[in-house]
């Protein structure tokens, strides 16, 4: 009799534990981690290898298993979308990832999405998703500057912070975010400013906030249109046009611009010096290409906040060119990809560059 009583008590306790665990799990936010590769999934031969390593080696399940504390923040699951170094990200990869994110945020039981990504083009993917995924749910991109095998590896804390932000109600409606080195930056503004250092990602206009020990501290809000307020929709985009970047410098010539146009580019981003300046040797060719239907978009390769003013340096109205506003060349390419899926009109393109 005593044994039966003890057995019933134990079974009741176990049952209560599982019921309580299920209730606690149900109360936690649900966050999906979409893994695409990069340094955060990299491995080096030795703990001293922080800059020489193989990217995109560690699968998402091992990344999650390596941070058991994620379970205290959210109910986390993972999907391996790609396993590539981000310099090899293609337009097709962008569309595939965008559609998967869009599918997930439509699910009522998903509270946020985290995307692990290589740092080389992380800013481009973040801006693309900021433009085309219509949701107010947090979408957070994260990477690392050192592989997980290195001393002082930054990926573990970066990923923990990213999940924490994605699970936070106060992160809703702020567009696509990038969480690295304790900062929360806008996917529109942030750029990789240096390599090799863990403080590589910065916004010329400052971070939106910081995340410290799982708590968010916000300082400003994004001013440009994004996500749920965007006129673009990844569900209506199947392919992206060819948009190329040509780099301006002293002694520049028109070879790259003509080659890109001959290869089918619908728009060329001029990564100009200073205020998107164009050398005298290149101006006639850009006028000619615009006359043939190629969109010419002036950007600046000034690293920490190039700002291109319309009709300054070049008569943009006369030449029917577009200026990229404060977007760096690679982000200008992303916006042109998306905008050209909707319009070929240069005045409409300029409106879009002002608003996004």
User: How many separate domains make up the residues?
Assistant: 2
Strand order of the largest sheet: 2-1-3-4-5-6-9-10
What is the mean pLDDT? 92
Q: What percentage of amino acids are in beta strands?
A: 15-25%
Along the chain, the helix and strand elements come as HEHHEHEHEHEEEEEEEHEHEHEHH
Structural class: alpha/beta
What low-confidence regions span 5 or more consecutive residues with pLDDT below 50? 1-6, 9-24
Q: What percent of the residues sit in helical stretches (DSSP H or I)?
A: 25-40%
Cα distance, first to last residue? 74 Å
Oligomeric form: single chain
Strand segment count: 14
Which CATH class of the largest domain is shown?
Answer: Alpha Beta
CATH topology of the largest domain: Rossmann fold
